Amino acid sequence: MSSSRPLEGRHAIVTGSTSGIGLGVARALAGAGAAVTLNSFTDRPEDHAIAQAMADEFSVTVRYIRADMSQGEECRALIAQAGGCDILVNNAGIQHVAPIEDFPPETWDRILAINLASAFHTIAAALPGMRARGWGRIINMASAHGLTASPYKAAYVAAKHGLVGLTKTVALEVAGQGITCNAICPGYVLTPLVEAQIPDQMRTHGMDRETVIREVMLARQPSRQFATVEQIGGTTVFLCSEAAAQITGTTISVDGGWTAL
What we know:
- This protein is α/β, with parallel strands linked by helices.
- It has 8 helices and 7 strands, in the order βαβαβαβαβαβαααβ.
- Helix content is 46%, strand content 14%.
């Protein structure tokens, strides 16, 4: 293990990691020397190509395993098929926006399953191996919406608040065993999914790109700047470091000041 590759010899699983925040986190962990298992719910040649390209770029072992995070048994099977892990990043998530009286019940169930219950299943499956090795890092990708709320996002806000509570509970259960459990709470992050929303917002509001980003999309983010996937990845690597060995059961906001309001 070298200072430039502090996670060499560790194995990380990142759920929902073929794009956006998950991919950025996986790249940061690979860059720090960790072997990485990528995951999504598809099984396309492109998914495996992402893993191969990352392996080639960072000279680490990277593999892709398909698992549907809405299915508890598949969440647990992912951990088993990967052979366990030292670092578990629960990142998979979906969103839906609607008034609560119009919120489709099946969508509520799916968001709670993917955004919250999947973390319960993966953590339960990963912990025995971490305990046996006396080392582990569990990082749950929550959200500013794990600490505050917005209208029309009932399922997402409920799930992310629940994920913060799960983080604290797990941290207490593993305290003193060389395992930490924390949540990262990003605000708006410039991902391909968010980038794709900008032209629609420009047309809807009759604004140019910079104005719609500053006045509409980042209205609740005091810095008026997106967080980046690289920043979220760097925060993840820090939480896996020895410097963070006594940081557990807490949230780290990467939100440009959103939750300071």
